[in-house]
Design a protein that fits this description.
Elements: E1 5-10, H1 14-27, E2 32-38, H2 46-49, E3 54-55, H3 64-74, H4 81-89, H5 91-100, E4 115-116, E5 126-127, H6 133-146, E6 151-155, E7 157-164, E8 173-180, E9 185-190, E10 193-196, E11 207-208, H7 217-224, E12 229-230, E13 235-242, E14 248-249, H8 255-259, E15 263-265, H9 285-299, E16 304-307, H10 313-319, H11 321-329, E17 339-348, E18 351-353, E19 365-367, E20 372-373, H12 385-402, E21 415-420, H13 427-443, H14 450-467, H15 478-498, E22 525-526, E23 531-533, E24 540-542, E25 546-547
Parallel strand pairs: 1-2, 1-10, 2-6, 10-19, 11-14, 18-20
Antiparallel strand pairs: 3-5, 4-5, 7-8, 8-9, 9-21, 12-18, 13-17, 15-16, 16-17, 22-25, 23-24
Helix pairs in contact: 1-6, 1-12, 3-4, 7-15, 10-11, 13-14, 13-15, 14-15
Length: about 550
């Protein structure tokens, strides 16, 4: 049998797709098999939902040095400066490459790219496609994958655990145990190299911009395999998720909306960010999220307002069509009506410890994208650096792997364990998941205190006790795997937070009892709203009054 380099990529978002396509290009005619596993189609991923864009220093008023400085400022100096410089330096060439692949970034009639400004950026530097940049990049990379014979796309697979060697002092990753969701059957998939590109763990919180599949699978598997993690205390909450009164996945209102002129208002209509930070509404996300959190606590209401009237209705609909459509579905007319917004868990700044080439320290295991902790983001992420990282680091990882001389072993077909899992989990699993999300949102959210963090650890321990008796194969289910991974990641986040004695970045400590996010996690929906006048304007603006069920 012909010897082939066998690579298993876990995760079908932009980081995984970027790695797979780049490796295929670099390998040329050398024997290669790439299997890309994903739970759901790319259209259900965090990548696809990404609105903002790719941060890159492209014009004369900007520079790589300035982009680096902004990244370090937002990250509170907890970044790995060498990684920041490498990733930021690659930004301009990356954008050129994407244009060459057919990416339809917004530009003027003369072809000059439109650059948006987002929170924490000192200048406009975000290349974007309307407010759907993630969807555009998924389209471009998806077309490349479809035309690459060495890449096999395996839909409907959920990673469960890494397969490790046992004969060496330092374990080597040999592949992956995975659940085929269609048949509910477990398989062992062997590979020379496993690349984790599984995204974040937003589902550990009750209110998140992340889709249902963001259960921290890759990070949890790495933790169980004793791989190192870093910066796990730093969870970014996006300040402006569209408030609808429900839990689960929240619809993001891009920071670029504020970059275009929208203003945050207190519930009573007064400017929210005035006097709170020199950058005002475009302050770093952790600053704005805390300001909104405090405003919500003061008012006793579940949200604040975003006033997009400075942009104008026509311009808003043109530049932010996806947000405009979602508002329309909810009966909100941006520019005429104020848009209700509240913070939501958005991005894990840390993850599996890697270098700038995605190497984890465990032979045979790479990690890229949000599940990786490369040190780029530090204690908070600069807006739109995530897509930059999801494109730059996988390319560097692919280049390193392609430079390896020769394949490692013969290709092996998947081995079925002849083990099926249950179609539904028992009720204790669902209750434990609800308890976990409530505890994390209340005690390990935007505002924290040490007593609250200890309360969260007790809830996590209770969830672990629920899981323990269900480890028998007869009681396995997809929901059990989800809970197991979320509990694992929740413990890592909470223990890391307890180990941080001072406030830094997204980790904000207060004395006494933290009130968490419970104020804007009601089981209500906004009802018919009266109007009130905002001082300094002659407009009537809707004021929300939740309708209790």
């Amino acid at each position: 049998m012909k010897r082939t380099l066998d690579v298993l990529v876990v995760g079908g978002g932009i980081a995984g797709m970027s790695f797979a396509t780049q490796l295929a290009d670099l390998m040329g005619d050398r024997p290669l098999r790439i299997r890309l596993l994903r739970k759901t189609p790319a259209q259900v991923s965090c990548s696809y939902a990404a609105q903002g864009g790719v941060a890159a220093a492209l014009h004369g008023a900007d520079s790589v040095e300035r982009h680096v400085a902004d990244t370090l400022m937002v990250g509170a100096g907890r970044n790995d400066r060498a990684v920041v410089e490498l990733v930021v330096r690659d930004g301009p060439a990356l954008v050129d490459g994407l244009l060459g692949l057919g990416a339809r970034f917004d530009a003027d009639a003369g072809g000059r790219l439109h650059l948006a400004r987002e929170g924490g950026h000192s200048v406009a530097r975000v290349v974007h496609h309307q407010d759907s940049t993630g969807a555009e990049l998924v389209r471009v990379l998806g077309e490349r994958m479809a035309n690459t014979s060495s890449i096999a796309l395996l839909d409907g697979w959920r990673a469960v655990d890494l397969l490790l060697s046992k004969e060496t002092a330092v374990p080597r990753c040999l592949g992956l145990r995975a659940l085929h969701l269609g048949t509910r059957t477990l398989f062992d998939l062997h590979a020379d190299v496993v690349v984790l590109a599984t995204g974040g763990a937003g589902q550990v919180y009750a209110h998140t911009t992340n889709p249902a599949g963001a259960t921290g699978d890759g990070i949890a598997m790495a933790l169980r395999a004793r791989a190192a993690v870093r910066d796990m205390a730093f969870v970014q909450f996006h300040p402006t998720a569209l408030y609808t009164g429900g839990l689960g996945q929240a619809f993001l209102v891009s920071e670029a909306v504020r970059g275009a002129g929208a203003r945050l208002l207190e519930y009573d209509g007064s400017p929210l960010m005035d006097g709170k930070h020199p950058m005002g509404d475009l302050a770093p996300r952790n600053v704005v999220a805390r300001a909104i959190h405090r405003a919500i606590q003061r008012s006793g209401q579940a949200h604040v307002w975003l006033d997009v009237s400075p942009i104008g209705m026509a311009r808003f609909a043109k530049e932010f069509p996806a947000i405009d459509r979602r508002c329309d579905e909810l009966g909100i007319v941006p520019g005429r009506d104020l848009v209700p917004v509240a913070p939501a868990a958005h991005y894990l700044c840390g993850g599996i410890a890697t270098d700038d080439h995605g190497r984890t320290g465990m032979p045979g295991l790479l990690a890229v994208g949000e599940c990786a902790g490369s040190g780029l983001h530090g204690a908070d992420r600069l807006a739109s650096n995530s897509l930059l990282e999801a494109l730059v680091v996988p390319r560097r990882a692919a280049a390193t792997l392609a430079a390896i001389s020769g394949p490692v072993k013969e290709v092996k077909d998947p081995e079925s364990l002849r083990q099926h899992v249950a179609s539904r989990a028992p009720e204790p699993i669902h209750r434990a998941l609800q308890d976990l999300r409530h505890a994390m949102s209340t005690h390990v959210g935007i505002v924290r205190c040490h007593d609250g963090l200890r309360v969260a650890l007790r809830v996590i321990a209770q969830c672990e006790r629920v899981i323990a008796p269900m480890r028998s194969r007869r009681r396995w289910s997809q929901e059990l795997f989800d809970l197991r991974d979320l509990v694992c990641v929740a413990r890592a986040i909470t223990e890391a937070a307890l180990a941080e004695p001072e406030s830094v970045g997204t980790h904000y400590l207060v004395r006494g009892r933290s009130r968490g996010a419970s104020a804007y996690l009601p089981e209500t929906r906004p009802g018919p709203a009266p109007t009130f006048s905002v001082p300094g304007t002659d407009r009537s603006l809707p004021a929300d009054r939740p309708q209790h069920e």
